[in-house]
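With this grant's support, we have settled on a layout for protein records. An illustrative entry appears below exactly as we store it:
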Amino acid sequence: MPAEAGIPLFLIKWDPRLCGGDFLKLTHYRFSCPAFLAKQLPDPRSPEPPDPPMSSRTETDSFGPIAVASDRYWGAQTQRSLQNFRIGGELMPEALICAFGLLKKAAAETNMELGLLDRNLGEAIVKAATEVMNGVLSAHFPLVVWQTGSGTQTNMNLNEVISNRAIEILGGEIGSKKPVHPNDHVNMGQSTNDAFPTAMHIAAVMEITKKLIPSLEALQKALERKSREFAHIVKIGRTHLQDATPVTLGQEFSGYAAQMKYGVQRVRECLKWLYPLAQGGTAVGTGLNCKKGFAEKFAARVAQMTGQPFVTAENKFEALATHDAIVEASGALNTLAASLMKIANDIRFLGSGPRCGVGEISLPENEPGSSIMPGKVNPTQAEAMTMVCAQVMGNHVAVSISGSNGHFELNVFKPVIIYNVLQSARLLADACDSFRANCVDGITANEAHIKKLLDDSLMLVTALNPHIGYDNAAKIAKKAHQEGTTLKEAALELGLLSAEKFDEIVRPEKMVGEN
């Protein structure tokens, strides 16, 4: 990793929405300090492994011994991943690690129930896994997304951390693999190939239900409030970016609110495909080394722990080899991004100005907008939202390509799929919260300007079609436009209507339909 890429730091903050109050919010920060990093991180082009930490212990795996920092719970396989995958700086998502902690807890409890796991060891594993689930051990999960496509190193990172923490709880020697072995006990009845997709589904469901949907619904309600507030304001509509027949500002905002309503429905509908869990399929879907009944009991425990209707997958071969359910969920997020892009763009165009744009609404003024133009204020919340939408759309491309590349019995794009889906869900949720609180809630209507634009519009002539015909109405509009007069003046000059009849017919408030 080059020095300028930065190193991970961790900030842990309580976020009860992530998993029914059980998960913590873990934010990864990176900074650059070349002088410091040059001493700590080797050049990735060098064939030599990095120097061992100053204070270390020896861990072992099938490749032999390796030094691990003495203040870290991870073991040999995690350490090798740190050496072999010095790619980028994107860590495995916080929600996935928490979901994995929940998974390991449920697996240990299930194995104890089935009489497979010694209760003393199992209870220590459960305690350690609970700490992972609650974010207490978040600093011990340093691996990047760009690793093996099954996520094996991350599964082993979980197994090693939980094993060593359980050993510590039992008073043993960290790194000894006694009395709690990472594979034999923590990973009992599991394979990365079924554990990782299970964690993917748990993480996606929890992030969507506990974070994303509440944020979407809050924005929907804010837009509905504005729709009611603006229901009486008649304005000119626009199609093709040109003047069209009148609408109310409330009707316009009702369209935005409906987009959010339908977006929530789409997201909810995709959840049913995320509830089936792969756990129990082990390596290729056959369930080798997994006791009969484990899959069903495990899924029931996860459902009880999360409050979500998780079940064991009907076909474990599909659950390991494909990720169609997550591709569909990503598609729902992509559709949300399309909706929010339209809403944010409309709002910033309607608020453009303040004097030389559309200027029909005023947006909250949150911060100075220019380092050179005094007094300038920009639609920054709309800009942030549209950047998020662009990122989510790009994420969906990555998820679609990755999901389409499940070869034979295993899809090996799992880390990048879940990374992008969780990022999309989190970005959309955060952006909706920010956009609502810092923009939508504070929008006001510039009614005098709206009325001026309405009165100047040529498209009010559409109301005359049933009375004088399309061709005559077009003559009025063209004459008024060419000569810079009003529609009424043009109609009178052409002798097509009396002033009284024109005023009777052309009434914008009667042209907006049901409000």
